[in-house]
Design a protein that fits this description.
alpha/beta; 5 helices; binds inosine 5'-triphosphate; Maf protein; 203 residues
């Protein structure tokens, strides 16, 4: 019989967005880490940086909960709109959706954009932030399909269709995939160092 895999280590992900949870868990599975969703109403701060939002929220949440946890803040930054909607991505999506972004870019030929994800991990050693970015452009129209949020209008660099039509591509190279991969590697290295037998001091 193959050796039994140890139970995955569990970490809270403070979010109201189940898509984030599902995408992040798929990335972390090979690292034997499992995220448990914890509702996160009212922890968000105002800032123009996703890194700062994630870091401060994770810090504040850890002070209360005292268990290892992650806060992830992400957004779509459109170059011709000087980074808008950026940290306001969630609110703008609710108000005007993908169609609203296309309207803002109606006469625009410069359609470069990027998705940024900042993942802040807090435990008793403090907070560490992992960042992931994917560059691309805004499509001319909305392509309904898989995913969520702005996936129907974001075409990753090197492709001709948006993430909504390319779930396997998104799973590998999205901003979230990149940030959670870095986190997974960090945790794997940490576990390796912890389990390494200590060298005896020689005099
Ligand atoms: P929590 O704050 O509760 O985690 P949220 O959805 O409000 O959930 P954010 O504040 O990080 O999350 O908002 C990011 C928004 O950016 C999100 O609501 C989407 O509209 C968009 N977004 C982020 N990642 C995305 C992705 O992978 N695909 C499409 N849109 C994305």
């Amino acid at each position: 019989m193959p050796p039994k895999r140890p139970r995955p280590s569990r970490i809270f992900l403070l979010t109201s967005n189940r898509h984030k949870l599902e995408e992040a868990n798929a990335i972390l599975k090979p690292y034997n880490l499992k995220l448990i969703q914890k509702p996160a109403k009212g922890i968000e701060i105002q800032s123009d940086s996703v890194e700062e939002v994630a870091r401060v929220c994770a810090q504040n949440a850890y002070r209360v909960l005292r268990v290892p946890l992650i806060v992830e803040d992400s957004g779509l930054f459109v170059q011709a709109l000087r980074g808008f909607p950026g940290v306001y991505s969630a609110a703008i999506y609710t108000q005007v959706g993908c169609e609203g972004i296309l309207r803002l870019l109606a006469q625009e030929r410069q359609r470069s954009a990027r998705f940024v994800c900042a993942l802040a991990y807090a435990d008793r050693n403090g907070v560490r932030v992992f960042r992931g970015v994917v560059h691309g452009r805004i499509s001319p129209r909305v392509y309904r399909g898989a995913g969520f949020g702005y996936d129907p209008i974001f075409i990753p660099m090197g492709y001709s269709k948006p993430f909504s039509a390319l779930p396997d591509v998104k799973a590998k190279l999205s901003h979230r995939a990149r940030a959670f991969e870095s986190f997974g590697r960090f945790m794997a290295n940490k576990a390796k160092t912890k389990n390494k037998p200590k060298k005896k001091k020689t005099r």
